[in-house]
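In this section we walk through a basic example: taking a raw amino acid sequence and producing a predicted 3D structure, encoded as discrete structure tokens. The instruction is simple. Fold the sequence below.
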Amino acid sequence: MGLGNSILGDDGVGWQIASELQKTKKLPANVAIECLAIGGISLMEALIDYDRAIIVDSIVTHQAPIGTVTLYNLEDLPNLNAGHMSSPHDTSLMEALQMGRSLGAHLPKDISVVTIEAQKVFDFSEELTPLVEAAVPKALGIILDLLLESGSEKTPKSKDSKI
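The resulting token sequence is shown next.
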């Protein structure tokens, strides 16, 4: 699931990575790819009926160099309100997932988050800055490794994976 906004500079990196993944022939057949500009409850709803999800988003922590690619489990994100995981008019994805599960929604237990450290996420531009653009191949490699690793499990997933 590529998160962001494609007209806000580096904020569009999640969409660009999702777009690149759609072009690859290496993906397992049960993988769905989406580009979304949502967070909180809406993001949780988009994850219903999947066993696994990989979320790709820009992140601004000011703790790592711009272009740094990091893989997290959702619960290990340093700031659970980072990026598009929440909205000032909504709730965090973690809280939305908890609510959805309490209501009986089938939600992924395995949620990985691939982040790319960015800085220019509010500038109107359809282009990524050079350091964020240079990080795209590394993020793609991490995602493909995650997908191919899950494809080699002895027991196949009962539902699709979502990126």
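Looking at the output, two observations stand out. The beta strands are 2-3, 31-32, 35-36, 52-59, 69-73, 110-117, 161-162. The radius of gyration is 15 Å. In the next section we compare this with other chains.
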